[in-house]
Amino acid sequence: MFDSQVSVTIGEDGLRQRLLYFASDIHAYALRAPEAGIGILNYPPGANCAGLAYLAPALDSEAGQSLWFALLDGLTAKAGEQGVVAIRAEVDDAAPAAFETFRRCDFAVYARQTLWAGSPPIDISGRRALRRAGADEIDAAHDAWNARLPGLIRQAQGPAKSAEQYALDERHSPSGFAAMHRGKGRALIDLYLPLEGADQADQIVGDVLAAVGRTARKIVFRLRHDMEWVGNPLKQAGFECVGSQAVMIRHTLARVQHYSFKTIPAKTGPLPTESLMSISQSEERIGEGQRQPAK
Half-sphere exposure of residue 63, counting CA atoms within 13 Å on the CB side? Predict the structure, then answer.
């Protein structure tokens, strides 16, 4: 699986069950010829970027890279037809064969991230700085966060509005926010904190864990490369770094099919010489008229 959100909140077995319920955010495509394969994308309606949730069979099967190339090309075309402009794959550093396959299939590294796993602490009381964010706050926070990112990596790092959003209140104003993706007994959390809030990182991590509460037996923090400084507070809270990944993006081109083009009539054969001469003479007359001195 190449989507940490799906891997943490659903899992491989849960992904198969979601397919049976025809979930609106899970889209499966089958490759029938010349070899059989399946690819699954994760994106809600209206999303611009799709997460690559699953590819089968495995890369080390008899089909090998050729089948993955065909699957990824087909998924890119199908996603583009739905208006998706990019596909994202989160590839483990411990899987060099998969990384090389994605590179050869036009995926490029846009960002890096680490995954930290653990459980909520026993004492999670007395936290008050974290609260559920309103719609206006979510839009404002997303705009502010995207403004500080380079345009090329916004697709790889932008917060998902479909997640459960919390605002982090410090000094009587939102100083950051957390996006939570909840599953059955598990949760994936993205943190978005400015550097000026580094002195409150311990409190913020505790507040986030308190918000998850005892409903999640397993919690995974996904830290993008500019949030890795939060790793120290997570380590002090009993979390362990369980993976390092490259966030790879491939852009789609099939979305061009949504537009209609008008055919321009073309004339065959060369343009007659008389027409060229008449055009040239007309331009000379116009030029002479403009050069006449005023009386």
Answer: 19
Q: What pLDDT does residue 276 have?
A: 40
Written as one letter, the residue type at 263 is T
Lowest mean pLDDT among 15-24, 48-57, 210-219, 244-253: 15-24
The residues pairing with 29 across neighbouring beta strands, listed in sequence order, are 39
Convert the pLDDT of each residue in 92-114 to its tens digit: 999 999 999 999 999 999 889 99
CA 268-272-276 angle, 5° bins:
120
> How is residue 271 written in tokens?
């343009």
Spell out the domains of the chain, with CATH numbers in brackets: 4-255 (3.40.630.30)
The H or E element spanning position 81 is helix 65-81
pTM of the entire predicted model:
0.77
Nearest Cα neighbor of 5 from 139, 159, 194 is: 159
Q: Name the one residue in this structure whose structure tokens are 């055009």.
A: 279
